Amino acid sequence: MLLIAIIAVAQYAAAQVDYSQFVNPLIGSEGPIPGYAFGGGDIFVGGAVPFGVVKVGIDTYEDNITLSTLNGGYTPMGKVTALSMMHESGTGGYPKYGIIPQMPLTTIASPVNLLDNQTYSQSRVGNDTARVGYFKTQFQNGVIAELSAARHSGIMQYSFPAGEKHVLVDVSHYLPSQSGGYSDQIYIGGEIHLQTGGIYTGYGAYGGGWNEGAPFTVYFCGDFDTPPDQARTFRGRNTDPNPRYHTFSDGPVPQAILGNTSEYAGPLNDRLGALFTWTNSSLSQISSRVGISFISTDKACNFKNTEIPSYDLIATVSAAVQEWNQDVFSKVQVATGSSVNQTNLALLYSSLYFMHLMPSDRTGENPLWESTEPYFDDFYTLWDIFRNTVSLYHLLQPSYYEGMIRSLIDIWRYEGFMPDGRSGNYNGLVQGGSNADNVLADAYVKGLRGGINWTAGYEAMKKDAEVQPYNTYSFDDPSASVKEGRGALYDWIPLGYISVDKSTRAVSRTVEYALNDFALSQVAKGEAPEDVQKYLNRSAQWQNIWAHNLTSLNFTGFLAPRFADGTFNLTGYNPALCGGCEWKAISYEATPFEYSFVVPHDAESLIQFMGGPTAFESRLDYIMQPNTSQQNLGANGAGITTIMNIGNEPDFATPYLYNYLNKQWKSVQTSRSLANQYFHDANYGVPGNSDAGALNSWLIWQMLGIYPVVTQTVYLISSPWFEDLNMTINGNSTLRIMATTSGSQNSTSTTSASSFGQENFYVQSVKINGASWNKNWFDHEDIMVNGGTIEFDLGSSPVVWETGDVPPSPGHLVL
Ligand SMILES: *[C@@H]1O[C@H](CO)[C@@H](O)[C@H](O)[C@H]1NC(C)=O
Ligand SMILES: *[C@@H]1O[C@H](CO)[C@@H](O)[C@H](O)[C@H]1NC(C)=O
Ligand SMILES: *[C@@H]1O[C@H](CO)[C@@H](O)[C@H](O)[C@H]1NC(C)=O
Ligand SMILES: *[C@@H]1O[C@H](CO)[C@@H](O)[C@H](O)[C@H]1NC(C)=O
Ligand SMILES: *[C@@H]1O[C@H](CO)[C@@H](O)[C@H](O)[C@H]1NC(C)=O
Ligand SMILES: *[C@@H]1O[C@H](CO)[C@@H](O)[C@H](O)[C@H]1NC(C)=O
Ligand SMILES: *[C@@H]1O[C@H](CO)[C@@H](O)[C@H](O)[C@H]1NC(C)=O
Ligand SMILES: *[C@@H]1O[C@H](CO)[C@@H](O)[C@H](O)[C@H]1NC(C)=O
Ligand SMILES: *[C@@H]1O[C@H](CO)[C@@H](O)[C@H](O)[C@H]1NC(C)=O
Ligand SMILES: *[C@@H]1O[C@H](CO)[C@@H](O)[C@H](O)[C@H]1NC(C)=O
Ligand SMILES: *[C@@H]1O[C@H](CO)[C@@H](O)[C@H](O)[C@H]1NC(C)=O
Ligand SMILES: *[C@@H]1O[C@H](CO)[C@@H](O)[C@H](O)[C@H]1NC(C)=O
C-alpha cells in the first residue's frame, strides 16, 4: 500500500513539475565587487507574478555612494529603508519607483525621525532568502520581514522581537539617486486617510527618474491582520532637492509632526504618511496587505481583498508559484533528473523568470484615457527587448504579446507616438531608433493578427518614420527629442543619413533608423503596398555613411561620421572608439566597429562591403579575440576585453553572423563560449544590466539552439544545451528540440551529462520535422506555427554540415 501511494505521488509530481524550484532570483543581484549591486544586473528581487503591476521588494541605501546602484531596490548589503510595492528590473540609469512603502520599526524614540530614513534604516543579518514569489530578510533590530505578491497587491509579514512594534508608511518615500542629479525622482504630493481597524487609503504622486517622466499618481489601500492600537498620521516640510522644480532649502530634515486621521499635501508641498503602533506584548507577528491602483483607492482596496483574501502569506506564495509554473516555466519542458546538468536548469528557468518581470500589464489601470484596449507600462526599453526578447514572447506568450502590441498602438492613438521606453505612464527615453517599429514588424511578418488593428499599427509606424517629434530639451541630449519618435528625422529624410555635425549618436542612429524603415517596408507589404519600395530604399541608407576606403586594424570599410555637406570626417577617426558611447557620442552603447555588423536585413551587402566572405570572417574572428577592445567600457565592462560586447544589446546577433558564411560551427563556438564565460548561476551572473530580461532572453535562445533574426521570419540554427526540450508555442502547439551525440562523439568522455553540451556541441547534421535539413536556418512557417521537431546530431568536431543557401537578406539593395 505504501509503495503504491509513493508511486502515485511520484507520477503526480512528474506531471506537475515545480520548475520554480530551479529559479535563482538573485542572478544579477551583484556586480564584480562582491556585496555590491554596482556593475551588476540591477534586477528586482522580491515577490511578483508574470508581468505583474506589483513587484514587492526591499528598498535599500548604500553607505558608499560611489558604489550605489539602487535601480531594482535590492542591494546585497545596503541598509533597508522600506519594503515597497513597485520596482523595475534590470534597468540602468537613474532609479524609478520604489514607492508605496511600509517599514517595521522597533522604536520611534529619538534619534528616530520619521522623515529621515537614515535614522531608522536597517542593516541585515544572515542571508536573505529569495524564491519565486517569496522573499525573506532579517534586520539588525531583530525584525524578520517576509513578503509575497499578487498582480496588484502585496503581503508583508513582520515577526517582531519582544518590545515595541510599529509600521511606518511614508507616502513620500521613493528610490533616490544617491548622487543626485537631473533625472532623480521626485515626490509631488499625496494624501492619506486612516480608518478604524487600521485600514489606510490614499495616494502619492511621483515624477522624474531615468525616463524623465511626468508625474503619475498611485492610489493605495492597506490593512493589518491585527488592528493597531494606535494609528497616527504625520507630515513635515519636504527638504528633498527637486531638480528643476522646487528646492525647499539646504536645511536639515525637520521633525515629523504627528496628526490624527488625514493628511493632504498639494503639489510640491509637505511630505506625509502614517505610523501604526501595537502595544499588546503577546503579539509578535503582524501581517499586512496592500493593494495599489492607478485609478482609485476603491480599486486598490478591491485588489487587496480579492487577490489576497487571507493573511496567509504561504497561500499568496503558492498562488504566485502556480501562476509562474503554469503560464511561464511549464511552457519549456526539459528532463529535470539528477543526470541533467543542474546549473543549466537554473540558467534556463531563471532566465525565463527574468524575462517575464517587465513590462507591467496594467490593463484596466490606465488613468490617462478611456479605451477597451489592453494597457502595458514599463517598456524599459524596446531598444533592449526588440532584438530577441519579443520574438520569444511571440512564441511563449501570444496573448500577453498581442496585448503589448495593442497597447503600443493605443499609446500612439492617444498620445501621438508609440514609446521606445515608457514608465510611469510616460514615453521616454529613446536611445536610438523608434524600435516599436521593429517589434510590430516582427509580429506582423510572423502572422500575429488577433485583435491587433494593423491599419492603425502601420499608421503609428509611419508617424515614427515621417514626423519629427517635439524637442523636449533633455539634459541628456538637448539637440532633439529623446522622448519618442525619431529625433533625427531632420537629417534622415533630406540627407539620407544622420550627420555628425547636426546630430548626436549619428552612427548608431543611422544604423537603427535603417532597420526601422526596413520594418516599415515589411508591414507595408500587407498594409500599404505603395510604400514598400520607398521604405526599402530608406532601409539601405546606412550605406550612405559607409566609408569604403577607411582602413582600421587592416580591415577596410566602416561606418563613419559624415558631415551634413556630404564629406566624411575621417580626421583622427578610430571606429573602435565611441567617445563614451553615451547620449552625445557618435554611437550609443557600442562602437562604430560593432555597429558596422548591425544590419540584420542586409547581411549580403555588409559582407560585400567588408571585402567578401573571407575578409568578413576574419573581421568577425578578430572582434571575438581577447584584448582587442580599445574603448573603456566603465561599469558596463563586466571584464569584457573583446570588441564584441555581449553585455550590451547592439552585438546580440553578431556571434551568429557566421551562419551567413555557411560556417555555422563558428557561430556555435563563439556564442556558446560567450554564454559560458559571462552567464552564471551566481549573484554576479549576467554581464551588466539585465535590461528588463534582454540579456536573459539572449541566453534562452542560446540554450534552445536557435536565434531569431528580428523583423524576419528567419531563425538561425546554432546548437542546443538540452537533449530533449518541449516548448509550448502559440498557445497549444509543441516545438520539440532534440539532440543526440551519435555523430563524432568524444569517445574519451564517460557520463552523458558532462559529455553532452560540454564537449559534444558541434552540429553534425540537422533534421526538421523528420527530414534532413541542409540549411543553417529555417522559416517561421516550418515549425513555429503548428509546432514540429528539430533533431540535432552533435559531436566534438567542428563540421561544415550546411550545403544549402545562406540565410536570406530580404533588404538587400545597393544604393
Ligand atoms: C567606496 O568605494 C570605492 C570603490 O571601491 C572606494 O574607492 C572608496 O574608498 C569607498 N569609499 C568609502 C567611504 O568606503
Ligand atoms: C533616505 O535619506 C537619504 C539621505 O537623506 C535621501 O537621500 C534619500 O532620498 C532618502 N530616501 C530613501 C528611500 O533612501
Ligand atoms: C550565507 O551564505 C554564504 C554563501 O553561501 C555562506 O558562506 C554563509 O555561511 C551564509 N551565512 C549564514 C549566516 O547562513
Ligand atoms: C487629534 O485628536 C485629539 C483628540 O481628539 C485632539 O486633541 C488633537 O487636537 C488632534 N490633533 C490634530 C493634529 O488634529
Ligand atoms: C516531449 O514530448 C514528447 C511527446 O509528448 C515526449 O515523449 C517527451 O518525453 C517530451 N520530452 C520532455 C523532455 O518533456
Ligand atoms: C483601426 O484603425 C483605423 C486607423 O486608426 C481606424 O480608422 C479604424 O476604425 C480601426 N478599426 C477598428 C475596427 O477599430
Ligand atoms: C576608394 O578607393 C577607390 C580605389 O582606390 C577609389 O576609386 C575611390 O574613389 C575611393 N573612394 C573614396 C570615397 O575615396
Ligand atoms: C596588418 O597587416 C600587416 C601586414 O600583413 C601586419 O604586419 C600587421 O601586424 C597587421 N596589423 C594588425 C593590427 O593586424
Ligand atoms: C573631426 O573629428 C575629430 C575627431 O575624430 C574632431 O576632433 C574634429 O573636431 C572633427 N572635425 C570637425 C571639423 O568637426
Ligand atoms: C489553439 O490555439 C489557437 C489560438 O489560441 C486557437 O485558435 C485554437 O482553437 C486552439 N486549438 C486547439 C486545438 O485548442
Ligand atoms: C554544467 O554546465 C555548466 C555550464 O552551464 C558547466 O560549467 C558545468 O561544468 C556543467 N556541469 C557538469 C557536471 O557537466
Ligand atoms: C575529448 O575529451 C577529452 C577529455 O575531456 C579532451 O581532452 C579532448 O580535447 C576532447 N577531444 C575533442 C576532439 O574535443
UniProtKB/TrEMBL annotation:
Q: Name one GO cellular component term.
A: cytosol
Domain annotation Glycosyl hydrolase family: ranges: 299-795
Question: Could you tell me which residue ranges the Glycosyl hydrolase family 92 N-terminal domain spans?
Answer: 22-293
The record's listing under Pfam families reads: Glyco_hydro_92, Glyco_hydro_92N
The record's GO molecular-function terms, alphabetically, read: carbohydrate binding; peptide-N4-(N-acetyl-beta-glucosaminyl)asparagine amidase activity
* The organism's place on the tree of life at top rank: Eukaryota
NCBIfam families on file: aman2_put
Q: Which PANTHER family match?
A: ALPHA-1,2-MANNOSIDASE FAMILY PROTEIN (AFU_ORTHOLOGUE AFUA_5G10520) (PTHR12143:SF27), PEPTIDE N-GLYCANASE PNGASE -RELATED (PTHR12143)
Protein name per Swiss-Prot or TrEMBL:
Related to putative alpha-1,2-mannosidase
Q: Organism source for this protein?
A: Phialocephala subalpina
